[in-house]
Amino acid sequence: MNHSLLDIENLSVYFDTPEGVVRAVDGISFDLAPGETLGLVGESGCGKSVTSLSILGLIPTPPGRIKSGRIKFEDRDLIGLDTENLRRIRGRDIAMIFQEPMTSLNPVLPIGRQVAEPLMVHKDLTKSEAFQEAATWLDRVKIPAARKRLSDYPHQLSGGMRQRVMIAMAMVCRPKLLIADEPTTALDVTIQAQILSLMIGLKQELGMSLLLITHDLGVVAQMASRVVVMYAGQVVEEAAVTDIFDQPFHPYTQGLLKSMPRLRVRGDSRSQRLNEIPGTVPLLTEVIRGCKFADRCPHVFKRCRQQQPELFVIRNGQRARCWLKSYPERRTT
Amino acid sequence: MIRYLIKKLIILSILLFFVSIAVFSVLFVLPGDPAQIILGINATPETLANLRAELGLDKSFIAQYMDWVGNLVSGRGNRSINYDIPVYDLILSSLAVTGPLALLAMVFAVIFSLPFGVYAARRQNRPGDVTVMFFTQLGLATPEFWLGILLILLLSVHWGLFSAGGFPGWSTDFWGSLKALILPAFALGIIRAAILTRLTRSSLLEVLHEDYIRTARAKGLRERTVIYVHALKNALIPVLTILGLQLGQLMAGAIIIENVYYLPGLGRLVFQAIGQRDLPVVRDIVLFMATAVVLVNFVVDLCYAGLDPRVRLE
Q: From the CB of residue B202, how many other CB atoms can be counted at a distance below 10 Å?
């Protein structure tokens, strides 16, 4: 029985570099139900973006290659799909929003054209129909005087406006899945909130699934219903969003939560220094025998260095890749 | 736009002023007496002195410079010592050869460089790319006069498809004239295509790594659209710069090729004028060439604004 829209199974993506093989994504699995919002969380370089790019077959090859795994979308395996069929899915069934609105739009083409393009390729609309529809969408993402803006170029718009254009461009074909890769990271805080509420509104209206890739747990709390935490190319914890915030199991997830800045409540005299997770992500070229987080983990013990833990079921819907499941007495602090 | 035009005109006039001083000084100190060359080595000192006076060669540096510039500015123009006709006419008739030759050469250059540059970029480091890069390297290393001679040997002497040189004149024989320009234009164009191909390739490769190309692919556009609409329009901006420089250079005359093919173009005119110490002709042509380069650059600027909406002409 399978009613998920997207089902990633044991996906590994390697990059061949002069320094050796980089295991950017190392055997990850997760799935996404229709209409669901899944947050994919982790530090920079943990493999979030590579995962999202491999869904659409956008990993530059070489140096990248999909080593193994399956990416099932509506019962079709996207890995090994020929370019023409993959192209028909891109932008129509699965659309994507990228982190950098400043560089993700083509500087020499008018935004109207860029928003209308997916309609012309996927829906066989004529140019004027497509531009008509593009104007409607620019209006829906709340770009003022949308019709007049069709002939504007990206450099004439602010960062927030450009991200709205990116959203309109992704939504015109009403995709079943929207992948948003750090959609608000490059924006001012006030603009972030506007963009997020715009995305929430559109998602509810269209009933699409959303794969939200971010390092910002605040964004996740606001948007997602389930969270997958990645570390060094692996899934280390997966849980419903409430469980992640209330009872995180993996020491890395706990570290991420502690390193979130919080507003100090008046009268609360406790020192609110920002916690950080000591150390850095291991080099992905190294083969690590035990747990990849061992070097930075406050609870590390012998077994962690000897054998890699599997994803243990913690409770219903929550799984974590940590030996503490088998040795609960080791959790001292 | 008006302000931009005025700015360009001011730059042009300042440039022409300095070019005129430079060319005048160089020719002034150049050994070789025009009077002597005209009259031959057996001329008596008196006839030489008379001719010098007639040509104004006995005046001071400043006076001669003022004469020359005065003639240009007042519109009287200068006369060729050698042919005794206005330099203006000489330049115009040579330009009727050099202009079409330069344009035709650039047409060849673009026809070859764009498709091959795009082809090579799309097959980076694969056999197709390596082959194209090999031939561009060959093109860069080949002197154009040698290629010109080879073409004459093969296509004119051996196969008799083209004439081996000379130019019948547009009014006498239009098609014959066009045909006479094809081989030299091809020789000029193919060498320039080598540079443009490499530039198109590297520029396109750079653009293909840009975020907006990833966006275009993520939208599900056909690879054709991604390359020719989204990437090429950006990649052509640096190519256009070099193309403009090449065209400007060619408008100033292709001295060697025009000599190989006996074409009465600007390059050949200035080459002969220097040999005959026909100073007014040399000076005027050099000034004209400087103007041509500035004008071509002006057209290139206009094209920039057409390609890249971020460029504003100011």
A: 17
Q: Which residues contact B58 (CB under 8 A, 6 or more apart)?
A: B49, B52
* Residue range(s) of every CATH 1.10.3720.10 domain in chain B: 90-307
pLDDT 10s digits, B100-153: 999 999 999 999 999 999 999 998 889 999 999 999 999 999 888 898 888 888
Q: Say whether pLDDT at B214 is over 70.
A: yes
Q: Tell me whether B126 touches chain A (CB under 8 Å).
A: no
Is the minimum CB–CB distance between B217 and chain A shorter than 8 Å? yes
The full set of domain ranges for chain A reads: 102-174
| ipTM for the whole complex | 0.85
For the structural domain made of B90-307, what CATH number should be given?
Answer: 1.10.3720.10
Task: Identify which of B212, B308, B310 has the shortest CB distance to residue A103.
Answer: B212
Q: Do A121 and B230 touch (CB under 8 A)?
A: no
- How far apart are the C-alpha atoms of B138 and B142, rounded to whole Å? 6
- Residue A302 CA to residue A310 CA, distance in Å, equals 16
Cβ pair A111, A156 in contact under 8 A: no
pTM of the model: 0.81
d(CA B186, CA B104): 8
Helix, strand, coil fractions of chain B, as percent rounded to 5: 75, 0, 20
- B228 in A contact zone (CB under 8 Å): no
Query: Burial code of A153-173, b = ≥16 C-beta within 10 A, e = fewer?
Result: bbeebeebbbbbbbbbbbbbb
Q: Which residues of A touch B229 (CB under 8 A)?
A: 109
Rounded to a whole number, what is the distance in Å from the CA of A32 to chain B's nearest CA?
Answer: 20
Instruction: Report chain A's C-alpha Rg in angstroms.
Output: 21
Interface of A with B (CB under 8 A): 53, 56, 58, 83, 87-92, 95-96, 98, 100, 103-110, 117-118, 121-122, 153, 155, 166, 169
